[in-house]
C-alpha cells in the first residue's frame, strides 16, 4: 500500500452525535485536509463507495452495531468491491462494544487494520495517521 496522502475519510456510524464529534475531532486536529464523508447506515457507505473511483476513501472508521446491516456485514460486502479500492483502503473498527468476541474478531479480520474504542480522540486519530499514512 503505497500512499503519499490521505484523500478521504468515511465515517460509518448510525449515531449522529458521535459522527459530529468525530468529524470535529478530525477537523480540529489539523492533521489532514482529507475530505470527510459521513454515512448513517452501512448500506449507504457501500453505495457511496461503489460510486467512487478506485482511489476513493482511503480511511474508513466503521461502527459494529448498526441497524439493517452491521459492521461485519458491511465488511463482507466491502470485500466484494473492486480490489483496487479494497487494497487502498484502511478500515478501522471504532465501537463501544464491550464484547470481547468483537475485539477478537476485529483483530483477526484481514480487512480490519485496527480496532479502537469510541469515541475517537485526537491522539487516537494521530496514531492511525502515523501508523498508516506516514507522509
TrEMBL record:
BP-aspect Gene Ontology terms? phosphorelay signal transduction system
Tell me the domain of life: Bacteria
Keywords, ordered alphabetically:
Phosphoprotein
Q: Where is the Response regulatory domain?
A: 8-133
Tell me where the transmembrane regions lie. none
Which PROSITE patterns does the record cross-reference, listed alphabetically? RESPONSE_REGULATORY (PS50110)
4-aspartylphosphate: residues bearing it: 63
Q: Cite a single Pfam family from the UniProt record.
A: Response_reg
Know the name of this protein? Answer: Response regulator
Q: Which organism is it from?
A: Flammeovirga aprica JL-4
Amino acid at each position: 500500500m503505497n500512499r503519499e496522502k490521505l484523500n478521504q475519510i468515511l465515517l460509518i456510524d448510525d449515531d449522529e452525535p458521535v459522527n459530529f464529534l468525530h468529524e470535529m475531532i478530525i477537523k480540529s486536529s489539523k492533521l489532514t485536509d482529507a475530505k470527510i464523508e459521513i454515512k448513517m447506515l452501512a448500506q449507504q457507505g457501500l453505495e457511496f463507495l461503489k460510486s467512487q473511483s478506485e482511489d476513493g476513501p482511503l480511511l474508513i472508521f466503521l461502527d459494529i452495531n448498526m441497524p439493517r446491516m452491521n459492521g461485519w456485514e458491511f465488511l463482507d460486502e466491502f470485500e466484494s468491491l473492486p480490489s483496487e479500492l479494497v487494497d487502498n483502503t484502511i478500515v478501522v473498527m471504532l465501537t463501544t462494544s464491550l464484547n470481547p468476541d468483537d475485539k477478537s474478531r476485529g483483530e483477526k479480520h484481514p480487512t480490519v487494520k485496527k480496532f479502537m474504542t469510541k469515541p475517537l480522540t485526537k491522539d487516537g486519530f494521530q496514531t492511525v495517521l502515523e501508523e498508516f499514512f506516514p507522509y
